[in-house]
Write a structure and sequence with these properties.
This protein has 3 domains: 33 residues, no CATH class; 129 residues; 147 residues, Rieske [2Fe-2S] iron-sulphur domain (Rieske Iron-sulfur Protein), CATH 2.102.10. It contains 7 helices and 14 strands. With 352 residues, the protein is α+β, with helices and mostly antiparallel strands. The strands form 5 sheets. The chain has a 4-stranded antiparallel sheet with strand order 5-6-7-8. It has a 4-stranded antiparallel sheet with strand order 9-10-11-12, with no helix packed on it.
Length: 352
């Protein structure tokens, strides 16, 4: 039995070539008819000056609505100040601020689309593809076309639309600039020091129970904070976030310890800052088989066996290590604060 298909849907005639691997007919390009352009539909704004002026006013109105939305966002931002709650400072204007920004963005977009659909040229045309770089004659012609487009769209002569658009675009980014201010101040030198100090016990987060060295077995992981932070303090969340530590138990024989960090672990128990050195996300995932710590935000991966050196991802520095030991009762304590600033590397992290 022959493998050649007897008939394939889509074949123009018996002389057409066949792609036997796909079972499809290959029809030469010169046998495909040009469907042509769809019939042109004349718009009301093309036939009536009254409708054209009305459309221009509608576009300008949408741009003014965008201005109102962006300006309202500015007013709302300052009208509703920060309020203090048990979880820290919170803005009460989030809903209205988002609504005003959405209004400014939506009205600006709808105005631009309405302008294009009602006032700009709507003639259909087809153009053959050509090389990106054209001849000097072609480039000169392109300039003429741009000028013609400006003339046909009315951008230069429709002053109301142009000025309202400029104003809307000027107001549009201002709410976003203000919102960036809520990210907080530049940490400056505050990342150089945390609440860790000599003799401060490591305690479970969030329970606050101290940790016995004997409870940290190989492969176990603990999220810990210093015992000397107080939930009632005004800066509690700030101090906790800077001092957060991941405590991991590994086989001491697996550790490659730098000469300047000898004695920083306790029988294979190591403690590293949870703040990723890329942009500050919490490093909270531990792969027990590989002894890798993983940041879930951008997949920076740190080798716990080798001083938390970066082995993958955008982070450029190892996680800072907290020197630890035990007290007379067998509880894990810090030998000192971190000896280098914690946090992302794009801040000034130099010690001096």
């Amino acid at each position: 039995m022959s493998d050649k298909p007897k008939a394939i849907k889509g074949a123009a005639n018996a002389s057409d070539e066949f792609d036997y691997s796909a079972g499809l007919a290959v029809i030469p390009a010169d046998k495909i008819e040009d469907p042509g352009l769809e019939p042109h539909h004349v718009r009301m704004t093309d036939k009536s000056k009254k409708h054209e002026k009305a459309a221009a006013r509608q576009v300008a109105l949408l741009f003014f609505v965008s201005i109102f939305g962006s300006a309202s966002a500015l007013v709302i931002y300052f009208l509703f100040p920060l309020s203090t709650t048990e979880f820290g400072p919170v803005r009460e204007n989030t809903f209205w601020l988002g609504l005003a920004i959405a209004l400014g963005t939506l009205a600006l977009g709808i105005g631009a689309v309405h302008w294009a659909k009602t006032l700009m040229p709507a003639a259909e045309q087809a153009e053959a593809r050509h090389q990106t770089r054209g001849s000097e004659e072609t480039r000169a012609r392109a300039v003429e076309i741009i000028k013609l487009a400006d003339q046909e769209s009315g951008f230069s002569r429709r002053k109301l639309i142009r000025r309202s658009l400029y104003t809307a675009l000027a107001f549009f980014p201002l709410p976003g600039i203000l919102v960036f201010g809520d990210l907080g101040p530049n940490p400056g030198r505050t990342l150089r020091h945390t609440k860790w100090a000599k003799g401060v016990r490591l305690v479970h987060d969030p329970y606050g129970a101290p940790i016995l060295a004997s409870d940290v077995t190989e492969g176990s992981v603990f999220h810990v904070v210093p015992a000397n932070i107080n939930p009632d303090d005004e800066d509690y969340l700030e101090q906790k976030s800077k001092a957060a530590v991941l405590l991991v138990g590994v086989n001491p024989e697996d550790l490659t310890i730098a000469p300047d960090k000898k004695g920083w672990d306790y029988n294979g128990i190591v403690a590293y800052s949870k703040i990723c050195t890329h942009v500050g996300c919490p490093v909270a995932l531990f792969e027990q088989d590989t002894h890798h710590l993983l940041c879930p935000c951008h997949q920076s991966t740190f080798d716990l066996n080798n001083g938390c050196a970066v082995i993958f991802g955008p982070a450029s520095r190892p996680l800072p290590q907290l020197p630890i030991t035990v007290d007379k009762d067998g509880y894990l304590i810090a030998q000192s604060d971190f000896l280098e600033p914690v946090g992302p590397s794009f801040w000034d992290r130099s010690i001096n």
